[in-house]
Write the structure tokens for this entry.
Amino acid sequence: MAESNQHYELVRLLMTEYQKLLPKDKWVLIQSDSFSSSSISPKFSGGYRPDVYYEFEDLMIVGEAKTSKDIESSHSLQQYESFLRSCSLFKGRAIFLLAVPFAECVVANNIVKQISKKFQGVYEIKILKGYV
């Protein structure tokens, strides 16, 4: 369950982005423990579970929401590593979405870009700006 209103709104932003990226008939395959869905997101290496997840055929989308106080925590850094590692290894199109408050976009982008250098591969990273 979402731990704060800010986190909840950021997960909503992720869900909106998923709905833009996917055809409507695939929305039922979106997994999240923060929103009603048929199942929760799977665990990644380290036991981390993304806020929102989709995988079908040759597309995987990993979505994580971070509040202002949590973007740079050691737990979050480990999550980013786990999720980016999985994206780099995925055979197909992989997208990592990170939803953060607008004021934290530059910090979040710098952190994720730095971590992504460890995990070479073809995948997309998108920082979503929340106005919460």
Observations:
- The chain is about 35% helix and 25% strand.
- The domain at 5-130 is CATH 3.40.1350 (Trna Endonuclease; Chain: A, domain 1).
- Strands lie at 31-32, 52-56, 59-65, 93-101, 124-130.
